[in-house]
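Pinned message: reference record for Iron ABC transporter permease
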Amino acid sequence: MAPAVDRRDRLSRLAWRASWVTAALVPAAFLTVFFAWPAAALILRGFFDGGSFDPGALGRVFTSTRTWRAIGFTLWSATASTVLCLALGVPGAWLLYRRRFRGVTALRTAVTIPFVLPTVVVGVAFGSLLRPDGLLGGLGLDGTAAPIIAALVFFNYSVAVRTIGTLWERLDPRLAQAAATLGASQLRVLFTVTLPALGPALVSAASLVFLFSASSYGIVMVLGQTRYESIETQIWFLTTQLLDLRGAAALSITQLIIVTAALWSSSRTQARLTAALRLQPAGSGSTPLRLPRDIVALGITLGVALLLIGLPLVNLAWRSLHRGGGLTTANYADLVTGSVAGSTLPAALATSLVTALAATAIAVPLGLIVALVASRRPRAAAGRRALSTLEALFLLPLGVSAVTVGFGYLITLNRPPLDLRSSVVLIPIAQAVVALPLVVRSLLPVLRAIDPRQLEAAATLGSPPLAVLARVELPHLWRGLGLAVGFAFATSLGEFGATSFLARPDNPTLPVLIFRLFGRPGAESYGMALAASVLLAALAGLTMAAAERLRPKEVAAW
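Predicted structure (C-alpha cells):
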C-alpha cells in the first residue's frame, strides 16, 4: 500500500510542477513574439543583407561623425546624471529613511512621482522654465546640455534615493555607533563604515539611473533642439528621415549592448544586497530628526524637492495659464476645441486611456503569472538557478529601450500571420512589454516576504498545493496588486518611445500630441502643449500617488 501512496505523491508533485511550467509558457510566448523576435530581427537586419552576412551597415554607421556624437552624448549625459543623482541621493536617502519627522511620508511620495511622469512632459516642463522668456531664462541655459541633465536628474533622483534608502534603513546601526564611540568623526564613520556597507545599493542605483538616463528618448527629443542627439533620437532620424533601416538597426544593437550591460550589472549587485550584511527589520534603525546635525541633509533634500522637482512642475502649470503676458484659460480652451494633424485633445486623451487600460490588462495578468512562477522555492540548486534565470529574462525589457521595441515591430510584424502594423492592438502590446518588468518587480517582493513556515504548516495540515496557493499566497499577492496596476497604467499612459514609431498620424496618444504641438511654431501651439502636459502629468501623478498608498511595506524599491 505504501509504494502505491508514494507513487501517487510523486505523480502529484510531477503534475504540479508541470502545471507551473505550462503557466510559465504563456508569458514566455508573449515575450518571445513581442520582444525577443523583434530584438533578434534588429540584430539580423544590422548584419545581414538579402540573406548574406554583410557587416557593411555597421561600418557605414560607425564612420559617421553624427553617430559618434550621438553615442558620446548618450554616455556623457547618462554618466553626468548618474553622478549627480548619487551625490544628491545619499543625503536624501539618509533623511528619508534614517530619520523620523512629521511629513516624511509625504516627502517620500513627492520625490517618487517624477519617476512615473512621461518623459515628454518632463522635457516640456524644463523647456518652459529655461527658455529665454521663462522664469529662469536669464541664466542663459536654453539650448545648452544643462536642461537635459537637469531633467534626467529630476526623473531619476527617486530611483537613487529609494534604492539606497531601503538598504540604509535596514543596516545594523551598532557598527557605526561603535566607530563613533572609538572617536571617529561623523564624516569618517560615513566614508569608512556606512558607504562601504552601502556599496551594493550604490552600484545598483548607479546602474539603474544610468540605464534610465541612456534611454530617456522624450527628454532629448524635446530639449535637444537638434543640437544634442542621443542614440535613440539618431535611430528616429535614420528611420523616419533617411529611411535607413539597416543603419538604425546597427545603432539599436549598440544601445542594446549598453543598456543590457547596465541591467546585468544591476541584477548582479541586487543579488548581493543581503548576502554579506546582517540586516535589521525596516525602520528599526531610524531615529528622530536632530538639528543642527542633520541640517545639511535636510537642506539638500528640501532644495531638491522644492527647486529641482517642485519648481518645474509649478512653473509648467503657471505658464499653461498664460498667453500674451496675461492670465487666461485660452490654452485649455483651444486644446479642447482645436485640432492637430486631424486629432483633438478629447480624441488623443481617449486613445491614451484606452491603450493604457488595454496595456494594463495585458501586463498585469502576465506579471502575476511570472511572479508566481519565479517565487517558487525549489530545494534543488538547479531549480533555483532556473528560476533566477527566468526572472532575469522577464526583467530584460526593463533594460531595452522602447524605441528599439517600436522599431523592431516595424520590421517584423509587417507580414502574415502577424501583420499588425495597422492594428489598434500593436500600441497596447508595446506598452505592455515596457510595463511588464515593473509589474513583476512590484509583485515578487510581496510573495517572497511570505514566511516559508506558513506554507509548510499549511501543507503539513493536509492542504494540497492548490489550496495553499489559494489560501495563503494569493491573499498576500492581492496586497501588491494596486501598486502593480498603478505602475502599469502610469507607465503605459506616458509611454512615448515605442508609441512615437507606431501611432497613426490621425490617432495619436496624448504624449505624441504634446510632441507635435511643441514642435509647431506659434504661441498658441506652445500654450496648448503646456496645457496638455499639465493634464498628462496630473493623470500620471494621481495614478501613482494612489498606487503608493496601496504599496505593501515589502515593496521598497524597483
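Pinned by admin. Summary line: The beta strands are 48-49, 52-53, 99-100, 287-288, 322-323, 326-327, 414-415, 418-419.
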